Amino acid sequence: MSQTNGFDGLKIIGDRINPGFKSTKALMDANDMEGIQALAVKQVEAGAEYLDITVGRRAKEDPKFLIDVIKAVQEVVAVPLCMDEPEVPLQRVMLEAYDQDKAGGQLPLVNSVVEPRYAMMQLYKEVRPFKVILLTSERVEDGVNKTNRSADEVISTAKRVTRRMQDEYGVPLNDIFIDVQVVAVCSDSYGQHRAAHAAVQAIHTDPEMQGVHMMGGLTNVGQMLPPKAVDGSDLKLCLENVFLTRVVPHGFDYVLATPWRQFSPIPADHYVSQVYDEFLQATGTDALRKARKFYKAGL
């Protein structure tokens, strides 16, 4: 397994078996299992330790195709899979199709469970144990579902859901992945990036949370931004690397991402790093104005 990841301790969940990528959609539309297998191998060779699997809308219409994709991928790679379908019946199909022996005995990872919706966990005892991604985007407060935006909301939700995973289902801490909800810089008027940083640091030092993993979807960071920063650098890759530079030392150890992207630490004096720090200190429309500085000079 080669490694394009320059961050010590960071592991990658390969995100390319997803019809959200045009090239992958073309493979799925053509039922090109050999092409999907080649994509699986390419990700593992680039350092992926899990492979995320989703086939989009087709899963509901054609669950056999979902099974075929899982079996085809497991024929050519020996890493565990991340089952990424939002509905319980589809997760059941995926977990039943998963061959743990072909993954070196490793459990699958289920993406995902959120506090207002625990139905996915019925599969933990009915089908097979699994590792689980817990989303911190929502909470239940006085019986009402609410969106989390502050660090305190993210932290308290993460701790509450983690305790429930342990107490009610017996999920070990090491099998729990806390998704701290990485959002797009260009739409972050609520300070959610700042909240994510604070949450990562707090969870990392909390005695009750020792052993959990922390993660997020890395491609979200640079969504809807131009490809180049004002200094000519690859803006999206730089932003992803700046984010990782800040959080990996505090226990952020998994990322859903394309494994062959060149992830490596960014120095503090890099233009994008400096603007990101300004952005973190701002809120509301001021934060969005700071975000424009990534690709426009003089703002």
Concise summary:
With 299 residues, the protein is α/β, with parallel strands linked by helices.
Kindly state the number of beta strands: 10
Uncertain runs with pLDDT below 50, 5 residues or more? Answer: none
How is the largest sheet built, in terms of strand order? 9-8-5-4-3-2-1-10
CATH top level? Alpha Beta
Radius of gyration from CA coordinates: 19 Å
Query: What percent strand?
Result: 15-25%
Helical amount: 40-55%
End-to-end CA span? 44 Å
Task: Quickly give the structural class.
Answer: alpha/beta
Q: What composes the largest sheet?
A: 8 strands, parallel
Q: Judging from the principal axes of the Cα atoms, what is the shape?
A: globular
Number of domains: 1
CATH architecture: Alpha-Beta Barrel
CATH homologous superfamily assignment: Dihydropteroate synthase-like
Notes on the protein architecture:
The structure is a single chain. By secondary structure, this protein is α/β, with parallel strands linked by helices. It has a single domain, classed as Alpha-Beta Barrel (TIM Barrel), CATH 3.20.20.20. It has eleven helices and ten strands. The strands form two sheets. It has an eight-stranded parallel β-sheet, covered by helices on one side. Strands 6-7 form a two-stranded antiparallel ribbon. Strand 4, helix 6 (122-126) and strand 5 form a beta-alpha-beta unit. Helix 2 (33-45) packs across helix 4, helix 7 (151-169) packs across helix 8 and helix 10 (271-281) packs antiparallel against helix 11 (284-292). The chain is globular and about 50 Å long. The termini are far apart.
